[in-house]
Design brief:
Helix content of chain A: under 10%
Number of domains of chain A: 1
Radius of gyration of chain B: 12 Å
Distance between the termini of chain A: 15 Å
CATH architecture of chain A: 7 Propeller
CATH class of chain A: Mainly Beta
Largest interface: A-B, 18 and 17 residues
Helix content of chain B: 10-25%
CATH class of chain B: Alpha Beta
InterPro entries (chain B): Beta-grasp_dom_sf, Mopterin_synth/thiamin_S_b, Sulfur_Carrier/Prot_Modifier, ThiS/MoaD-like
Radius of gyration of chain A: 19 Å
Order of helices and strands of chain A: EEEEEEEEEEHEEEEEEEEEEEEEEEEE
CATH architecture of chain B: Roll
Pfam family, one (chain B): ThiS
Oligomer: heterodimer
Strand order of the largest sheet of chain A: 3-2-1-27
Strand content of chain B: 15-25%
Protein name (chain B): Molybdopterin converting factor small subunit
GO biological process, one term (chain A): xyloglucan metabolic process
Keywords (chain A): Repeat
Distance between the termini of chain B: 40 Å
Order of helices and strands of chain B: EEHHEEE
Structural class of chain A: mainly beta
CATH superfamily of chain A: YVTN repeat-like/Quinoprotein amine dehydrogenase
Chain lengths: 364, 94
């Protein structure tokens, strides 16, 4: 394979770091912190432009949240004079944090979605520079009953359909999965089969604490979901969900990621349980299924074999889009691990960073 | 009336590099009115001080005559000619 440049954007509690490899992901150079002393919960690399755009949601403890962009891979950053993302006055709400930035489908190259706290969806039609509230979801009759988990009440997952721009799926904690088939004008809960172990009703219409959802662009009617207790797959466009937790050491965790080219291959990072949020046996292991969750294998070559008591948060694992896919995850103890052979073996590409909140990777 | 806004170093890049802004504020001159003028001149600075509801951010303190404005009348705290208004980030984070 010809050498190509890969970039990994690493969002941490105190800024963004960028890891770059020019030799097929063998060696990495790290720059940062970019936007120092801001918590970066959301980062995206938008490859749809002639020059890939980095989109970053930052939150300063003192000076609040915003969205900044870079069209030169982090050399310079731009923030418009007008607020990039703000609640309209009539809502009485204020932006707490941007949790997710997701480029829209290829057929809408200027569309970018943002999931935020408090739970709301925003849409940009200028490539992610400025955003407007998606009113249909904000005005949903369920909204007063959406709750806040430990991390706050937020839409943390946005999954636009890859070819049908009218179809959008989001997930929130707490609230669960919601879907729109009319560009966000109306929404319905899509949680049938997902448990809510912390509520008196085990399988409510909504209210679940979904941690992360993933879908493959070649098979968009299939979803994988890591719940607050439960790992699920849907084969019917999120109309129903079935457990795929059998074979995993636990059904708790935060992240789930789909292979970029193989719709049957999915990755998770299990933790022992809600009340015991450590990697089982103190071993740092990624779990992979190559049959859509029917069976699972532990991947651990090059990862710590003992004494690993860190965690991997919901957006802190990702793949790149290379022919032989790379896989990346960051820990709350500030290490970032990379695999350039689809998870078979791993190397550390960054360490001693602040808590890693999110990672995104792309060939640029 | 003319009042003076004093900024900490971390915010000066959003105010053209200035540590001190002289701001003409209409009557009635208040902290809120001062920040409204700042919003028009330096929008990136103002939104680091207030959210979109024009509420002062939790860890931003604004001192008028040595008193934090929340201990006075908040955004309605009156300003006098030549008043010095000082922005000081509070202790927060880790």
């Amino acid at each position: 394979m010809a050498d190509e440049r890969t970039i990994v954007a690493i969002g941490t509690r105190k800024g963004l770091w960028l890891a770059t490899s020019e030799d097929n992901r063998a060696r990495w150079q790290l720059t940062g912190p970019h936007n120092p002393m801001t918590a970066v919960y959301a980062v995206a690399v938008d490859p749809r432009r002639a020059r890939p755009r980095l989109l970053v949601g930052t939150t300063s403890e003192h000076f609040g949240p915003t969205v900044v962009t870079s069209d030169d891979l982090g050399r310079t950053w731009r923030e418009p004079d007008q607020p990039p993302l703000a609640f309209p006055e009539d809502t009485g709400a204020a932006l707490g944090r941007v949790w997710q930035l997701t480029p829209g489908p290829a057929c809408e190259p200027e569309v970018v979605y943002a999931g935020v706290e408090p739970s709301a969806l925003f849409r940009s039609e200028d490539g992610g520079l400025t955003y407007e509230l998606v009113r249909g979801l904000w005005e949903h009759e369920h909204r007063p009953d959406w709750g806040a988990g430990y991390g706050g009440q937020a839409i943390h997952t946005v999954l636009p359909h890859p070819t049908r721009p009218e179809s959008i799926t989001v997930a929130m904690s707490t609230g669960g999965v919601y879907r729109s088939e009319d560009r966000g004008a109306s929404w319905h809960a899509a949680n049938r089969g997902i448990q809510a172990g912390f509520l008196p009703e085990r399988y409510p219409e909504f209210g679940q604490c979904v941690h992360k959802v993933a879908r493959h662009p070649d098979r968009p009617e299939r979803f994988f979901l890591q719940n607050h207790g439960g790992v699920y797959r849907s084969e019917d466009d999120a109309a129903s969900w079935q457990s795929i937790a059998e074979g995993l050491p636990s059904d708790f965790g935060f992240t789930v990621v789909v292979h970029p080219h193989q719709p049957d291959t999915v990755y998770t990072f299990p933790l022992i349980a809600d009340e015991n949020r450590f990697a089982p046996e103190g071993r740092c292991r990624v779990y992979r299924s190559e049959d859509a969750g029917r069976s699972w294998q532990a991947l651990q070559r090059g990862l710590p074999e003992a004494g690993f008591y860190s965690t991997v948060l919901r957006d802190a694992m990702c793949t790149d889009d290379a022919e032989t896919a790379g896989l990346y995850f960051g820990s709350r103890s500030g290490e970032v691990y990379a695999s350039r052979d689809e998870g078979q073996s791993w190397q550390v590409i960054a360490k001693h960073l602040p808590d890693v909140l999110c990672v995104r990777a792309a060939t640029v | 009336m003319l009042v003076v806004l004093l900024l900490p170093g971390v915010l000066r890049p959003h105010a053209g590099g200035n540590a001190k802004l002289e701001v003409e504020v209409g009557e009635p001159a208040t902290v809120g009115a001062l920040l409204d003028v700042v919003a028009a001149r330096y929008p990136l600075l103002e939104r680091r001080l207030r959210d979109e509801r024009r509420v002062l951010r939790r860890y931003v303190n604004v001192y008028v005559g040595g008193e934090e404005c929340r201990q006075l009348n908040g955004a309605d705290t009156a300003l006098t000619e030549g008043a010095e208004v000082q922005v000081i980030p509070s202790v927060a984070g880790g």
